[in-house]
Amino acid sequence: MFPQRLDSPLAYAIAKAMMDGFNRHYRLFRTESARAKHRFETADWLGQQRAQRERIEFYDLRVKECVRRLEKEFGAGSQPMEVWHQAKFHYIGLLVNHHQPELAETFFNSVTCKILHRTHFHNDFIFVRPAVSTEYIENDEPAAKPTFRAYYPTRETLHQTLITIVENFQLQRAFAHLERDTRHVLAAVQARLALDQVKLRANFQIQVLTSLFFRNKGAYLVGKIINGFTEVPFALPILHDHQGKLTIDAALFGEEDLQILFSFARAYFMVDMEVPSAYVQFLRSLMPRKPRAEIYNALGLAKQGKTLFYRDFLHHLKHSSDQFRIAPGIKGMVMLVFDLPSFPYVFKLIKDFYPAQKDTTREQVKAKYMLVKQHDRVGRMADTLEYSEVAFPRDRFSDELIAEIEKFAPSQLEISDRDGDGQTEVIIKHLYIERRMIPLNIYLQEALDAGPGDAHARQQIERCVIEYGNTIKDLVAANIFPGDMLWKNFGITRHGKVVFYDYDEIEYLTDCNFRRVPAPRNEEDELSGEIWYTVGPRDVFPETFGPFLLGSPQVRDVFMQHHADLLDPAFWQEHKERIQAGHLLDVFPYHQERRFVHTPA
Q: Are 456 and 523 found together in one domain?
């Protein structure tokens, strides 16, 4: 309810202080993102990863700063609700000509919930829906960059236009062979659009976002080619070659390539954006099937991603009627997982107690999930959204699921009408939400059940076993040992990628000790069903993986042909030593054969 009059000077002061807090946050966020260009130019790869990791903490730090200021200067928590109603009204006024209004609304929500000790489902003072439109926002100041630039080449000037597009980013490091690289790009564009066969229409143009997208050791130029009614998204990865010069490594085209580049299983980009909503709108035109929440996440704006996800979730609940259920698959020892069949995500609770073999705590499990969020996920670890005090309609929960939560996670469950609206709700104290995938063990078993005579099933087995091994090796390159390598802890995405999603036993590779199984000392050791040698808390014996993973002859044959090295401690130790020596290994968000290094000069 908005106030009938604005008569509290304190309300405006609170709103202005909150806006100051947000502006400080976004200024620091944007500055750190802009510095990614210099780190790329100077090949400061460890600094780039450190900045990506530290930037994740910026939002919570600024919220805490703002809360402290509001309490110290205004006693905000003790102000009457009428003042808070007026403060929100004033805040909306401050958003009218703002360049990041949607982010500022989310910041207001975060600060208000901290001060008033409310939750998102029981709070009259937050922005449940956006109050200010993000359509057509541009910075009209003379020195400001536009969101994107449009280039209008002819067939004859297309190659020179590609050179100009790259040079306009003014990278302060020389290209090894920009003329050659852009000819590779030109050939790829011609092949993709069949330019030798199609007519170039009056609107033929190339639109390119004005900031590069930085992640790890790469910079990505992102845009689209428009010809008539055809629009083709593209991205050009720019890397350092072995001599330290810049090179365009590949040309990615189409929604599928861009979806993989901006995948939820990859680290967040660093990109300098004055108007983030305009970037999101442009990227949605390239990837219309990708939720806006995931695009905000990919840009490092995870709190806005959470806000949009929750709005999408509430909208889906309102327009569906199926019930939440225990998720299909083998139940986890540490996490209780449920889903809504019509909604493409899973909800994960940490159980209150675990079997003896799982020596962990709730705090340790949370730390593992935070490690994954801050780490380079190399396209192989699912990102998670973390929520507290989430309310669901009670009638949407099956009795079986309620009984499961009461049995394994009673401390996380409240069933009540806490907000007094007459509707009983299931309130989950803490949970993680991830994209739903087909569990790899189920996907593999489906193919095995079809029998060796089914050619399609044989191909499915081969693809997923090879992808599984590639996933492990990509994680190794990122200094990650998954811990529990069973098939059930991995899933298949809609792009056919295998992704790891069970993090309670994850460790840094460099913290593990990879050992060979000692030879038996005598016949008694050899026949013993017990381990006769000492095992440290982080000792790993790769030779022992086989019995747990390779029970099927079909699976074993493919695995041994492509990934037998994963059973050799030397493989793991070699990668551990390379990482300890400071090597940062490349993991590309596209297939090796797409790289121009494989293209004749």
A: yes
